[in-house]
Each structure stands twice: as structure tokens, then as C-alpha cells.
Amino acid sequence: MTKKINHIGIAVRSLDTALPLYRDVLGMTFEGSEEVVDQKVKVAFLATGESRIELLEPTSPDSPVAKYLEKNGEGIHHIAYEVDDLGSALAELKKQEIRLIDQEPRGGAHGTRIAFLHPKATGGVLTELCQAG
Ligand code: CMX
Predict the structure, then answer these.
(1) Is 3.30.700.30 the CATH number for 2-131?
(2) Which atom of ligand 1 is nearest to the CA of 72?
């Protein structure tokens, strides 16, 4: 079902504060930032080789990332796997009775289609599936 890790999501309080570590100290390539209104986050993508991280800053106190930061502080928030066909991946997971957060694909950053699986169904790791737009 999964092709590769698309990105690792890292919750931060401030993109501006977090960016210099990844871009300037670790030398990752800044690919841009955008607001994902639906998810109440501002995100920044940074690449290292074929791999990417997504820094996540909440835009509202009721953002899932704000809740995560309050409870855990900054740190790894989710792992996103790329799939070819998100609709059929979700259908397969439903058949296997895996608990989903998103029953249907929704819009993510960079025009991708995304859906989250519940961390209680995935060994405590919040898992995102994404399909390129
Ligand atoms: N990783 C692992 N476990 C997590 C988690 C995370 N990121 N976020 C919450 N949990 C766990 C909590 O620790 C808690 O476990 P316990 O009951 O054992 O304490 C449980 O899930 C419930 O957590 P909660 O704090 O009560 O929060 P909610 O149930 O309200 O929400 C979740 C949790 C995962 C359903 C919600 O955060 C969600 O819908 N996430 C998906 C959307 C999202 O995260 N969007 C932001 C990123 C968007 C993007 O990348 O574009």
C-alpha cells in the first residue's frame, strides 16, 4: 500500500524560531511554507536528499498541533507515507477495521490529498497517508 515515507511532521511553537536549525545548521533545503487552513497549521517543508520534514506551527488554540504541543511540547508529531491511490488505501483499511481519523481524503499542503489514521490503531504513531496532487 505504501510507497515511501513522504515526510516526517515535527510540531514546533514557531516556524521562524525553528527554521534556522534545520536550514542553516543542518543545511536542509527550505522548500517553502504555506498555511493549511483546514488543519489549522502553518507548515514549512525542508528537504535533505530524498527525504523531507514538515515543521508544523498551530494557527489557532484549537489546532490539533496546539493540543499536541500543550501536552507533549515540541517533537515528532506524525509520519506521512505516500500512496498511489488514497481512496482505495482507505477502503482497504476500513475493510481491515483500522480506526481512521479521516474517512475520506482531504486537502493537504502542496495540493496533496491526505488522510490520518488514529494513533491508537497504529502503535501510538500518528500516521498520515498522502497522494500527490
Ligand atoms: N501522536 C501520537 N499520539 C497522539 C498524537 C500524536 N501526534 N496526538 C494525540 N495523540 C494521542 C494522545 O496522547 C492521547 O492518548 P492517551 O489517551 O493515551 O493520552 C490520544 O491520542 C487522544 O489525544 P488528545 O490529546 O485527547 O487529542 P484528540 O483526541 O482531540 O486528537 C487526534 C488526537 C490524533 C485525533 C488529532 O490530533 C487529529 O485529528 N490529528 C490529525 C490531524 C492533524 O494532526 N493535523 C495537523 C497536521 C496537518 C498536516 O500535516 O497538514
Answers:
(1) no
(2) 13
